[in-house]
Amino acid sequence: MKFKNCFFIVLIMVIFNFSHLYSSKTIKFGAWIVYWDFQRGYEEFRRFGEVFDKVSLFAYEINSKGFPVRTKELNLSKVRAFVKLAKIKKAEPWLTLVNDLRLKNGRILLKEYFPLKRIFKNQKLRKKQIEEIISILKNFGFKGIDLDFERIPEELSEEYGNYISELSLELKKYGLSLNVILEPYKGPVPYWGTTNLTVMAYNLHGKNTLPGPRSTSSLIKKVFKRVEGDARGKPSVAIALKGFLWTKEGKTKRIDFKEAEDIKMNNIENVERDSDSNVPYIKFANGSELWYDDVVSLRKKIITARKSGYQRIMFWYLGGNPVKFFYLLNSFKVKKRGE
User: Fold this and answer.
1) The domain that contains 64 carries what CATH number?
2) Residue pLDDT, tens place only, 15-64
3) Which residues does 324 contact at the CB level (< 8 Å), separation at least 6?
4) Do strands 177-182 and 196-200 pair parallel, antiparallel, or not at all (unpaired)?
5) Number of independent structural domains in the chain
6) Does residue 278 lie within any of the structural domains?
7) Domain residues for 140?
8) Residue-wise pLDDT tens digits, 101-143
9) Dihedral, CA of residue 59, residue 168, residue 172 and residue 148, to nearest 10
């Protein structure tokens, strides 16, 4: 009798541990479609959208008053087509609002916070801006908004936190959701529990740095500290897909996945991989360097993100990616038992 009891206890423990292991392997995928590469991103979403549970349209910026405005590159028909396709693919359609400010001459000031400062500090302006955000989401049928406000100074932390809380509460009234994008190292973090969070884990190397990987597994683990206190328990991490070519002239060129693969195949004997994340790179005889992620390094980063505790990986961004990238994502999808 004692033996039977011990057997059942062990069996229950094995089942519990297996179930925990099974669930820990599940991770969701999302992605952005950006206005300057809409057509390619839309086409990839049309072909492979089943691997994503969320796709966010990077389509709105701010005006001089801090209010949301649609980028001139995206007309209304494209926005509606995106939302319609997302619903067909059973992926939540989200909208991204970034604090880029477009001047009258067409020049864009990236991550401008001065207009937002006035909104954070003025209740009437906050109310009006939030009403406009809600109106946009409802009119198009978006599920929620990804708020990509960057370079917010620390001295505005309290005002920023109050703004996020107010925005989140107002969105809830209409069944809408909020997700806040965080920079990897700096910037205020909203009050825990007020919103879901996504932390960027890229731009370790890029246009204004020496050659190197755009992101690493170490960076993915490190920036988790920015979101691990998320009371909602649904933190996400954003990983970039594009690479860079540092030319012999000292210039930096963004490289698509497909283009990088072609360069690699023509220089296969010179390909090396970094020790952290297996990111491939090539040092050319003329002094140029190419660094980008392929399916080998992305697989390792996905595993790292999953083990770190992230619930979703957002990929920046669709367009210029090969079929095998989507096959990789599909290989990580775990079906519920009984399906």
Assistant:
1) 3.20.20.80
2) 334 333 334 458 999 999 999 999 999 999 999 999 999 999 999 999 99
3) 295
4) parallel
5) 1
6) no
7) 28-240+294-331
8) 999 898 999 999 999 999 999 999 999 999 999 999 999 999 9
9) 20
